[in-house]
Amino acid sequence: MWCLAMNVYSRVAKDVEPKKAKLAEANAQMESATVSLNAKRDNLQAVQENVIMLETQLNDALAEKQGLADQATLCEARLFRAGKLTAALGDEQAMFEIDACHVLPQIC
Predict the structure, then answer these.
(1) Domain span holding position 22
(2) What is this structure's pTM?
């Protein structure tokens, strides 16, 4: 009986040994792939953080651009109104000088 058991064990061991070797090789490959995957995930995380930072910078730059465009529009409107006011005051000055020429001789 013991001999039979040893014979069966020997046959099973011969069948199982190559499978154990393949399992060990597959585990080693899986470990290598897992390490590579984790490195890629870390790299992806860094790239995603960089993209988020760049999007934030882009949004800030676009907001600043819009603010500057609004300021430019306001300045153009102010310059236009200031030009109209200067022209009106220039006309008023000419009328004042004419009136002053008529009034000053009468006062003095």
Answers:
(1) 16-81
(2) 0.58
Number of domains observed in the structure of the chain: 1
Q: Is residue 24 part of a domain?
A: yes
What is each CA distance from 32 to 27, 35, 37, 39, 49, in whole angstroms? 9, 5, 9, 11, 26
In whole angstroms, what is the distance from residue 15 CA to residue 21 CA? 11
| CA distance linking residue 36 with residue 44, whole number of Å | 12
User: pLDDT value at position 102?
Assistant: 75
pLDDT mean over 64-93:
93
DSSP string, 16-73: HHHHHHHHHHHHHHHHHHHHHHHHHHHHHHHHHHHHHHHHHHHHHHHHHHHHHHHHHH
Query: CB-side exposure of 37: number of CA atoms within 13 Å?
Result: 6
* Distance of alpha carbon 30 from alpha carbon 34, whole angstroms: 6
